[in-house]
Amino acid sequence: MGVTVRGLAQRVYVDAYGEFEGLYPMLSEGPDQMKRVSQIKNHKTLHAVDRILIFTPDTERPDFQASLARYDSWHTPYAIVTLGDVTETLERSIAPLALKFNKGLLPAEDGSRHGLPSLALGAFLLTHILTQLQEMTEEWA
Predict the structure, then answer these.
(1) Contact in structure between 113 and 96 (CB atoms under 8 Å)
(2) In this predicted model, what pLDDT tens digit does every residue of 44-53 receive, in sequence order?
(3) Mind spelling out the 3-state secondary structure of 42-82?
(4) Closest Cα to residue 33, out of 140, 139, 118, 134?
(5) What is the sign, positive or negative, of the torsion defined by CA atoms of 125, 5, 46, 35?
(6) For the whole model, what pTM was predicted?
(7) Of 105, 9, 33, 89, which is closest to residue 56 (Cα–Cα)?
(8) Which pLDDT tens digit goes with each residue over 66-116?
(9) DSSP one-letter string for 72-140
């Protein structure tokens, strides 16, 4: 029998857009699969005790906006990680993280930059966040 902790999410879902959809295999096939974390695809409804961790390169995407409307109707809290800047949409989340990451890391000869490893950054953040959640839930289990 599990312990129910007030305010602790029953389940954490990951929703990803654009290049961040590459995070899904980490949840289902990776070596660090977590029992209480799964991708949100194909879920018809969630509850207020669930949480959603969203990765999106842009908070203005129509598919992303449609999902937020659905999550709001379910009263399911969500945290948003985006490559962009702080927006009104981002501020609706329980834990907004605007990375403001829009320039490449590698300099080119003409002074521009290229090589934006957004998926690698997302994978690092997802692993870190899920590790923290795992440690917290183990303390209460």
Answers:
(1) no
(2) 788 888 899 9
(3) CCCCCCCCCEEEEEECCCCCHHHHHHHHHHHHHCCCEEEEE
(4) 134
(5) positive
(6) 0.83
(7) 89
(8) 999 999 999 999 999 998 888 888 888 998 888 887 778 888 899 888 888
(9) HHHT--EEEEESS---HHHHTSSS-EE----S-SEEPTTS-EE---HHHHHHHHHHHHHHHHHHHHHHH
